[in-house]
Amino acid sequence: MEIPIKISQFAKMPKLLPLNKIIRSNAFTAKQLGTVGMISKDDETIAAGNVGTMVDYLTRTILLTDDHAFDVANIQLKKDFDQGLVSPDDLVKVVDEEERLKKIAKATSEIDDLPDEVFKMARDVCAWEEAYRSGMYVKPETYPDKVTISHIREMLKRVEHFFEEYGWPTRDAFIASTKNNCLAGEGDYLLKDTLVDLKVSNARSMQIYWVRQLLVYYTLGFYNHFNDEKINSLMIFNARTDTVYFVKIADIDESVFEFVNNAAEKQSKKNEQVLKLLGIKLK
Questions:
Q1: 8 A C-beta contact, residue 183 and residue 220
Q2: How far is it, in rounded angstroms, from Cα 254 to Cα 215?
Q3: Which top-rank group of organisms is this from (predicted)?
């Protein structure tokens, strides 16, 4: 049985966050940014989840030139290296690709000017971020072809346009956590007063799982004062459909956040008990 120590896991448990206790998808206002609409995943050569990870990482690396973009991937890379699962040559290869990506990001001003090799290198590095999330590294067997690269380029342009419309991030990562840290997660972006979660999904409407994610990230990140910023809105940006979904905090009854907070703290205490029985310590 999977222990829901991550917010992404907890948000997938509808019995713990039932619809009658939270807001529904239709509470969010939808806005279409561009006129093209859906970028289909059908002709892409890598899995949709891999494309999503790459869009997120390239957003941080290329658009935001974030020096910490590869921190999560490197945690898993170092862990596997220390356990003898990664050769010195493979370690050097990934670190070298990260450094090359950083240099290209600083030297390139337009997304269309990115060389195709950027997307191959990003695929290699992102495999380690996915390993951190799943607990197991899977060496990439396929890489983005011309069509897939064109799709990722277009989605990066959409993310760039989104930031230009709604404001550039003041933070491109934030921690949300319960009191004992046995249920936690890292959110995507903070704008001036808006919490944003980036999606790369074929879904054409706001999904209830996204609603639960946003509510938990906000509640454990800001409602409980884990972070100091004042958040006025919750927002999803789906780069595949170029659609924004948003709701104002003021339009959500405080009882929703109280319920989410209590449910998360209760689950976190259960997690702590199970982890102790298993002899597992969270860092």
A1: yes
A2: 11
A3: Bacteria
pLDDT of residue 200: 97
The Cα–Cα gap between 25 and 48 comes to 23
Let me know whether 111 and 63 are in one domain.
yes
User: Would you say residue 283 has pLDDT above 60?
Assistant: no
The rounded distance, in Å, linking the Cα atoms of 99 and 35 is 36
Q: Which residues contact 209 (CB under 8 A, 6 or more apart)?
A: 11, 12
Residue by residue, what is the 3-state secondary structure of 44-74? CCCCHHHHHHHHHHHHHHHHCCCCCCCHHHH
Q: Which domain holds residue 67?
A: 46-144
DSSP state of 252: S
What distance lies between CA 187 and its chain's CA centroid? Answer: 6
| 209 band by pLDDT with thresholds 50, 70 and 90 | very high
Q: Do 243 and 189 fall within a single domain?
A: yes
Q: For the whole model, what pTM was predicted?
A: 0.91
**Residue type at 172 in one-letter notation:** D
Same domain, 96 and 207: no
Residue 176 sits in the same domain as residue 85: no
Kindly state whether residue 163 falls inside one of the protein's structural domains.
no
| Stronger pLDDT, 28 or 186, i.e. the higher one | 28
pLDDT in tens, 128-187: 999 988 878 999 999 999 999 999 999 999 999 999 999 999 998 899 999 999 999 999
